[in-house]
Amino acid sequence: MLVLTLLASSIVIYAALYLAPGTPLxxxxxxxxxxxxxxRVLEQKYHLDDPVLVGYWHWLNxxxxxxxxxxxxxxxxxxxxIAPRALTTAELVFYAAVLVVVFGVAIGLLGALRPGIxxxxxxxxxxxxxxxxxxxxxxxxxxxxxxxxxxxxxxxAGDGLLDQIRHLTLPAIALATSSLAxxxxxxxxxxxxxxxxxxxxTAQARGLPRRLIVRRHVLRNAAIPITTVxxxxxxxxxxxxxxxxxxxxxxxxxxxxxxAASSKDFAVVQAISLLLVVAFVLTSTVVDILYAALDPxxxxxxxxx
Amino acid sequence: xxxxxxxxxLKETPRRRVKRRLTISEVLCAIVxxxxxxxxxxGPALAPHDPDAVDLxxxxxxTTLAGFHPLGFDAEGRDLLSRVLAGARTSMVGPLIVVLIxxxxxxxxxxxxxxxxxxLDMTAGAVLDVIFAFPGLLLAVLATAVFGPGLTAAAMxxxxxxxxxxxxxxxxxxLRERSRDYVAALEVQGQPALAICLRHILPxxxxxxxxxxxxxxxxxxxxxxxxxxLGLGVQPxxxxxxxxxxxGEVGVLQGYPGESLAAGIAIVLVVxxxxxxxxxxxxxxxxxxx
Lengths: 305, 290
What we know:
- The structure holds two protein chains of two kinds.
- Chain A is an all-alpha fold.
- In chain A, about 45% of the residues are buried.
- Chain A has helices spanning about 1-20, 25-30, 35-45, 50-65, 80-115, 115-130, 135-150, 160-195, 200-205, 210-245, 255-260, 265-295.
- Chain A is about 75% helix and about 0% strand.
- Chain B is built from twelve helices and no strands.
- Chain B has one domain: MetI-like fold (Orthogonal Bundle), CATH 1.10.3720.
- Chain B is mainly alpha-helical.
- In chain B, α4 (about 120-130) runs antiparallel to α6.
- Chain B is elongated.
- Chain B is about 75% helix and about 0% strand.
- Chains A and B meet through α1, α6, α7, α10 and α11 of A and α4, α5, α9, α10 and α11 of B.
């Protein structure tokens, strides 16, 4: 299934070249006029004279060996342009994912275990946060913490580890906001549902300390839906990263994808799309594996028909 | 006909009519959605000033009561309230179109897969799984790279990305409906399959479909606003909430967050209302269907 999905998405990304209005060549060059010789070289390099499948095969083969062709805007191999930006993006997504897991689960637990005002406050705020797009969160964060209070730098990604963490903190929060709220809500719901079950009542009747009941009987069972949702939302961070990078002017993969899309730098668009889809699919797969580790009742392969 | 309707009413009487009074949050949602709908229709006409009238003398001026500018002006001296009101149309119509197409296609796929079952169900599931792997926003960016920036390409890409979600949720509901006694009764009567699907199964799924469409509207609004924010959807100077957040970014850095905030709050309010309403509708639909 994993291989099939990746194969299909790579076909879609490659086929986009042929879907574009005009010839594949003009899509690649963004309609820029070129001398005859260059066109001949390009046709050969991208196998535009060959059948589509042959061209696809060469492109995929190159991509697997880290060769995504040449950017038509920068006239540099795409790989050289992408590699440093991929690192920044990976750091940002990882930072946001940590925030989602730690604070999402903690806030959800807090709501489930402290009914009353804490719980309803958490419910209302997560409802609003879940509907807050990352670019609106970014605007609020920048105007409060960078412009008013001056605690964090406004734009850019920073150099060196500490500086980078300082620069990436607000972007990571903006990226994490809605996923965090979603994870908190699911955590709360599944903990409450689990706490209602008979085995928990039994444990309570036996006089086990509350802390132990929560940790051993409630959390372990509730972990399964929580993992699923966390996995899905973390995978979605990969897709949403473009917006946050644009908002904070971070020179990462997402912002570069948007730039390439508006300047019709097609080789770059294809390369980044492929990378992001691979990251998205791999994250989902890792969650599936984790799922099986957490819950021995789930057998790998039984649902991957 | 009498047989089927009798069996339905027999089964449904005990759990029907669990009438509850609307809660405060439900009323609030209805009000917000109502206002948003009115603005989408009449927003540009309701705007007190010309939303595109530039007046650099008023750039970034705050609330001015003289001449009625309650939200003040943006960086180019355009009246903010007028721009928020006028922007409601593009911000709401885009998601509406996406949802209408995606939900129609999704429910057709769901009903067809549930009815035929077997190979069709399997193939549809596999194809949809593959599309599932493609995040909507990414597909939309790819589409704008191919067809050029604009709302149409982005909206069509979102439709493709949403259909699997819709189909997956509705398939379960279609399967449940398919296994009901009245469907078997209609089949025995020799009714054509298409007629049963269109005239009986789909109408009975109506509540679930509406709930799904409501939730989807919130997503579509967020995604389309994000695309416009990225500069790949609605193009400035058109008034659109996503575009306004992005145009206001310069102001944010200079300490005038008014434009971005006004548009951002509008987006969040509408999306919260649709999310909460959708969740409630889904709960009610599943209570009525059990």
